Amino acid sequence: MRLLLSLLLAGATAVILAFLQSTTPSYAVLTGPIDTAGLQRDTVSSRAFSVKVDKIVRAKTISFTRYGQPAERQTDGSWLIVSVELQSKYETMTIQAAAIEGASGRLYRQTHRADGAPRLVSAKELQPGLPTTGILIFELPDDETRDMTLVVSRQPSPQLESEIRVRLDPGSIETRQHTEIANNGV
Q1: Global pTM value
Q2: How far apart are CA 85 and CA 71, in angstroms?
Q3: What are the structural domains of the chain?
Q4: CA distance 51 to 43
Q5: Which residues of the chain have pLDDT under 70?
Q6: In the prediction, which pLDDT does 131 show?
Q7: CB of 101 within 8 A of CB of 147?
Q8: Cβ partners under 8 Å of residue 57, min gap 6
């Protein structure tokens, strides 16, 4: 009788432990980003900074002045230029990571093919309480542009840090064949 009771107790313990293990979130989930989500028309605020998307332009060709020389970039997909207003809440900071989550769920980080373009957010420091405007430039396949989310954070792969996700409205995207990026905007 004692042996049977011990086996039942060991079996029940194993079932409880298996249940607890299967319902416990993974380490990546526990230490992942602290997401704040919103829509394009809103100012989306996390505990560290806020983002407001002003304008989105999609183009096949972009041009800009890079270090005093004209530069032109073309793509088989689409260039996506996102004009944003950012504001830090408590400390001076930079935005080092921005990506577009496309219709398939893939992330497309800011392109380096447009480095040196005027008004890039990655070249700016955010000061507490002072709004800063700039642009983010992405290169992605055309089919990914029908359903997109802008993902912005202080650092790539943030752990226990703020990450803002802004759902982009496909109806508000301005489509052009050629876009010139200047000091006064797109």
Answers
A1: 0.84
A2: 25
A3: 33-180 (2.60.40.1240)
A4: 6
A5: none
A6: 94
A7: no
A8: 80, 81, 83, 173, 174, 175, 176, 179, 186
Q: What is the 3-state secondary structure (H, E, C) of the chain?
A: CHHHHHHHHHHHHHHHHHHHHHHCCCHHHHCCCEEEEEECCCCEECCCEEEEEEEEEEEEEEEEEECCEEEEEEEEEEEEEEEEEEEECCCCECCCEEEEECCCCCEEECCCCCCCCCCEHHHCCECECCCEEEEEEEEECHHHHHCCEEEEECCCCCCCCEEEEEECCHHHEEEEEEEECECCEC
Rounded Cα–Cα distance for residues 9 and 145 (Å): 56
Give 54-91 pLDDT, tens digit per residue. Answer: 999 999 999 999 888 999 999 999 999 999 999 999 99
The pair of structure tokens assigned to 36 is 């704040």
> Considering Cα of 136, then 108, then 39, then 49, what sign does the dihedral take?
negative
Token pair listed for 163:
């990450």
pLDDT at 137: 96
Whether residue 83 contacts residue 186, with contact meaning beta carbons closer than 8 Å, is answered with: yes
With tokens 């650092």, the residue in question is 155
Burial annotation 29-41 (CB, 10 A radius, 16+ → b, else e): eeebbeebebebe
Q: Are 140 and 78 in contact (CB under 8 A)?
A: yes
What angle (nearest 5°) sits at the alpha carbon of residue 104, between those of residues 152 and 36?
30
